[in-house]
Amino acid sequence: MSWEQAAEAMARQAVACAGLAAGLCADLLDRAAADVRAGGPCAKVITGYADAPPDAAVPLRLLGGVHALVLSGRAPELARFYPSAGGAYRPADADACWAAFRAIVATERDALRPWLRRPPQTNEVGRANLLLAGLLYALRRLGPRPVRLVELGTSAGLNLRADRFRVTATGLGWGPADSPVVLPEAWRGGAPGWLREAARAYPEVAVVERLGCDVTPLDPGSAAGALALRAYVWPEHTARAARLAGALELARRVPARVEAAGAADFLAGLRPAPGVLTVVWHSVMRQYVPAAEWAQVSAEIDRLAVAGPAFAHLSFEPDPVDRGRFTLRARIGAGPDRELAEAHPHGLPAWTG
């Protein structure tokens, strides 16, 4: 077992958290890396997962499990540092916060172990900013028609309700004004011209079907499902947590069908629907799909692209060459992929050029 490999994964994730304004998580993971090297409680709890590949995101699994204990009221000493639980965190609190975190990992090992068996599922609502932009771009290209939304790796299916979100930016205000989910300041420097034009042309989208797949889907209407989704939002990101709460409210109002299936098998059973625009979209999930299965996914997308009169494939994923870039790409029908925008990994803000 490579404890050094596990410690390095903790340290790398700490750097990523620091770069995404999650200083609390960054400080905890820095100390967790040292604890793993020393054979402390963090090493013991991840036993069996130390050799997991980077895409398994073991550090995020551990953070999520501990956060769930905080949100459930089972870690009051740690909760006082977690903004998500009404606490507050300053760099000066790092030592005390770490002591409380380490104590929870040591005493709640049995509660944390199941979290190490499940992939992180943030179901990041902010990424709908890019997906909606792609949808409006497709409608502008293909003309008005009802939409069938299909999402791969949909987790709890929250972004299958994205047409009910409100997106705002300089030059852009789209979606229901009373939506419980608001994506503010969505575009750096203002929305691009093509998006403003599309939003004016299509102030509403008629979604007639919402379906998705996930290997381990979460039920947003259950207490356990909602807790898992909340736990994977970093505790200092209160704006993200508020958007998630709004999306959970929408999920209770707007039905969607989510199947427990891999992306390739799910798409193999999908057929064109006459009279509608079928949109297959996904966001930051491709890294969790084995290469062989993704080749099948690509083949099924090719099939759908030529089988129906109106089809679009939209993706918001890390750039295949520069993994630090997250790009929105759109394919209309059997045409080529086109890069439309780039964005923050959580979807806000986006930009072009």
Short description:
The chain has about 350 residues and is α/β, with parallel strands linked by helices. It has 13 helices and eleven strands. Helix content is about 40%, strand content about 15%.
As a percent range, the share of strand residues is 15-25%
Strands, count: 11
List segments where confidence is low: pLDDT < 50 over at least 5 consecutive residues.
Answer: none
Radius of gyration over alpha carbons? Answer: 21 Å
How many H/I helices?
A: 13
Lateral arrangement of strands in the main beta sheet: 6-5-1-7-8-9-10-11
Order of helices and strands: HHHHHHHHEEEEHEHHEHEHEEEE
Distance between the termini: 45 Å
Structural class: alpha/beta
**In percent, how helical is the residue content?**
40-55%
How can the largest sheet be summarized?
A: 8 strands, mixed
Average pLDDT reading: 95
Q: What global shape is seen?
A: globular
Q: Which terms summarize this structure?
A:
8-stranded mixed β-sheet, 3-stranded mixed β-sheet, globular, 16% strand, 353 residues, alpha/beta, 13 helices
Notes on the protein architecture:
The structure is a single chain. The protein has helices at 3-19, 23-37, 41-45, 58-71, 76-79, 94-107, 109-116, 128-142, 193-201, 223-231, 238-253, 263-268, 291-307, and strands spanning 147-152, 166-169, 172-174, 182-183, 207-214, 257-260, 277-283, 311-318, 326-332, 338-343, 350-351. The termini are far apart. The strands form two sheets. It has an eight-stranded mixed sheet, sandwiched between helices. Strands 3-2-4 form a three-stranded mixed sheet, covered by helices on one side. Helices cover 42% and strands 16% of the residues. Helix 4 packs across helix 7 (109-116) and helix 8 (128-142) packs across helix 9. It has 353 residues and is an alpha/beta fold. The mean pLDDT is 95. It is globular. 45% of the residues are buried. The chain is built from 13 helices and eleven strands.
